[in-house]
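pasting for ref
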Amino acid sequence: MSELVTGEAVALELRPARLPSRALAVLLDLVVTVAVYVAVTVALVASTSSLDGAAQTALTIAAFVLVLVGGPIAVETLSHGRSLGKMACGLRVVRDDGGPIRFRHALVRGLIGVIEILMTFGVVACIASLVSARGRRLGDVFAGTLVVRERVPFSSAGFMPPPPPWLAGRFSGLDLSAVPDDLWLAVRQYLTRAGQLDPRVGWAMAERLAADVAARTGAPVPREVPAPAYLAAVLQERQAREARRAFGEASAGGRTAPAAPEVPVSPAPAPPRAPAPVAPPPAPSSDGRSEVSRDVPPDGRRGTGFVPPA
């Protein structure tokens, strides 16, 4: 595996293609290219038989350049790094940051490939691939590219087993800030590949990693907890803390505080209305009849001064 860092600071784990697969892909591409070149040459000879020798030589050189040099460049540019041989072998040309190649990358690879593959019969390319740590030839070095494997066989090595249920939340009080990232990476790689290791070797590695983690946290490993279970529980605790830090307590815990129940509020009673004033009784007149005031009506309300006609 080769770790590449993209422009967004994302680490990519790619499998660089080695010399046997690359040589087979180049051989297939050469067979197809030479077959096309022979067909084009025969067609040119048949169609330009009436021309002189200089014109036929110029057309032959032009066909050589276009087919053997321009053809692979055009195919890699249009297919983003997947020629016919690479497609058959499951390979692909990418940039150093893991992105797809462009015309300038394919142009540099094609021009240098004429020297190190065609003119030297692949000797220079083989030596450069053997010397390079990631199997790159000179064209890849100058173009800033890398040939990687696209078809990777499936395996269950990437599965990380969860910790036992009885260890859930037991290490929530550990101080994990002093544990470096490379030690966390080693713990994760051990847990994902524990099933492929020899039992004795895996157990010794787990004990060593658990001792390193315990030394950084300041708390010893409990005696009743096996080393692999301890590593799985501590790693899960770290991932839970990272999730809480990134997404908040509510999304990490999945619980929210219950809302207080609403208490119905009854409306306040209306104040009692004051009783209407009662008009004083009319004073008796000299003939014994009570005289009704014109300004005060019989219902006790104050008069307006208007007297209806008789």
